[in-house]
């Protein structure tokens, strides 16, 4: 038996409980990991509260991320004692996940914990931070350099947003942050933001083309915000879209694409191939400012995860949450 967050479903809906879990709940897998640190992402909020049907098998151990130590392995790539991390692959949705002290998974899904990061730091980054890096890499791959102009980050106080801001600032970009929490201006400036705009400016229906304000954008909220991010992108620029905190719709027109030649990159972290993940984690190990990472991180115990998951969906959590699995 070990402790974890177990999600069940009945006629009344979803129920998440912090409880003792029997190992028989875990599915097949060739690597068993002692989970030392985990985290809460937006999707974990959806799964734990049942607000969206992201969990597709019951009972399900919640948690799309974990970091820990291999206990047992019959996978050729891993040996007992090695430090590993996992993001996505349907873990916490269709395969029992990382919000439990033990996980059993397919060894192909694991990434070696970068030597420069502790398991706690890796989970402070988590799927949110790894997705932020995938977005930054899309901006770079497009050829946008710091001298080309500012980069807009939407949902800047959230997990993906906060880490995107920290990474872009470390890489020398000027960052414009869109947020509903302008009261967090000092926090955002400390992370590296130069200009803050109230998210209401971008959240309502806008014009097909707006004033060219940014060379690129990282959008975590979707809907009109994404449409307005595209409409305000300079000629030849690029937008990396990864989220839907405002909505999953995309009420845009073709105008920014056919008159300004902008490019929209779709970012998926869940099924990204192993080589893409390893490259992103290598970059994170090099480019994350660990002092800034600490300032954007709140640590909780596993027994607090259900309450904090609801806060996260309500937009009350700033930055990232790490979970000490042994507290
Ligand atoms: P968080 O909850 O930490 O952050 C979301 C932020 O979005 C909030 O902090 C808030 O920022 C902003 N926001 C919330 N509600 C609204 C709203 N109604 N309108 C406009 N802005 C809003 O979540 P994450 O950062 O972990 O995830 C962000 C998004 O990215 C989610 O939609 C998530 O599903 C998605 N995601 C996608 C991944 C992928 O692989 N494509 C991987 C990881 C995440 P503020 O207070 O600054 O306004």
Give structural notes.
This protein is of the alpha/beta class. The chain has helices at 42-49, 119-141, 159-170, 185-191, 200-203, 223-231, 255-258, 274-287, 290-295, 305-313; strands spanning 2-10, 13-21, 31-40, 60-61, 65-73, 83-87, 102-105, 111-112, 151-154, 175-179, 193-198, 214-219, 233-241, 263-266, 297-301, 320-324. It has two domains: 2-113 and 296-324, Medium-chain alcohol dehydrogenases, catalytic domain (Quinone Oxidoreductase, Chain A, domain 1, Alpha-Beta Complex); 127-266, NAD(P)-binding Rossmann-like Domain (Rossmann fold), CATH 3.40.50.720. The strands form three sheets. Strands 3, 5, 6, 7, 8, 15 and 16 form a seven-stranded mixed beta sheet that branches. Helix 6 links the parallel strand 12 and strand 13. The model has no long low-confidence stretch (mean pLDDT 97). It binds NADPH dihydro-nicotinamide-adenine-dinucleotide phosphate. Residues 41-43, 127-128, 131, 155-161, 179-181, 199, 203, 220-221, 225, 242-246, 267-270, 312, 315, 317 line the site of NADPH dihydro-nicotinamide-adenine-dinucleotide phosphate.
- Gyration radius, rounded: 19 Å
Instruction: Kindly identify the CATH topology of the largest domain.
Output: Quinone Oxidoreductase, Chain A, domain 1
Largest sheet: 7 strands, mixed
Q: What do we call the CATH homologous superfamily of the largest domain?
A: Medium-chain alcohol dehydrogenases, catalytic domain
Quaternary: single chain
Order of helices and strands: EEEHEEEEEHEHEHEHEHEHEHHEHE
The CATH architecture of the largest domain comes to: Alpha-Beta Complex
Low-confidence stretches: none
Proportion of strand residues: 25-35%
Binned, the helix content reads 25-40%
> For the residues shown, what is the average pLDDT?
97
Q: What is the C-level CATH assignment of the largest domain?
A: Alpha Beta
Question: What structural category arises from helix and sheet content?
Answer: alpha/beta
């Amino acid at each position: 038996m070990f402790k974890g967050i177990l999600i069940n479903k009945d006629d009344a809906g979803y129920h998440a409980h912090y409880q003792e879990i029997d190992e028989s709940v875990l599915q097949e897998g060739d690597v068993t990991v002692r989970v030392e640190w985990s985290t809460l992402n937006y999707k974990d909020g959806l799964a734990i509260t049942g607000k969206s049907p992201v969990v597709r098998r019951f009972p399900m151990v919640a948690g799309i991320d974990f970091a820990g130590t291999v206990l047992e392995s019959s996978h050729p790539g891993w040996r007992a004692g090695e430090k590993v991390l996992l993001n996505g692959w349907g873990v916490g949705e269709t395969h029992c996940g990382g919000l439990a002290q033990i996980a059993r998974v397919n060894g192909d899904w694991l990434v070696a914990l970068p030597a420069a990061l502790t398991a706690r730091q890796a989970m402070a980054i988590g799927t949110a931070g790894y997705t932020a890096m995938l977005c930054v890499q899309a901006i770079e791959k497009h050829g946008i350099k710091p001298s080309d102009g500012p980069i807009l980050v939407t949902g800047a106080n959230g997990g993906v947003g906060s880490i995107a801001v920290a990474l872009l600032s470390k890489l020398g970009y000027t960052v414009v942050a869109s947020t509903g929490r302008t009261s967090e201006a000092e926090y955002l400036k400390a992370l590296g933001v130069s200009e803050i705009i109230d998210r209401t400016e971008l959240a309502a229906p806008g014009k097909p083309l707006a004033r060219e304000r940014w060379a690129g954008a990282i959008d975590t909220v979707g809907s009109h915000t994404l449409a307005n991010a595209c409409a305000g992108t300079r000629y030849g620029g690029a937008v990396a879209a990864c989220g839907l905190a405002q909505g999953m719709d995309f009420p845009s027109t073709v105008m920014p694409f056919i008159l300004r030649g902008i490019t929209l990159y779709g970012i998926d972290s869940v099924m990204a191939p192993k080589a893409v993940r390893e490259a992103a984690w290598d970059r994170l190990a090099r480019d994350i400012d660990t002092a800034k990472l600490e300032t954007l991180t709140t640590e909780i115990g596993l027994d607090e995860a259900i309450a904090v998951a609801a806060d996260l969906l309500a937009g009350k959590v700033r930055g990232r949450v790490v979970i000490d699995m042994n507290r």
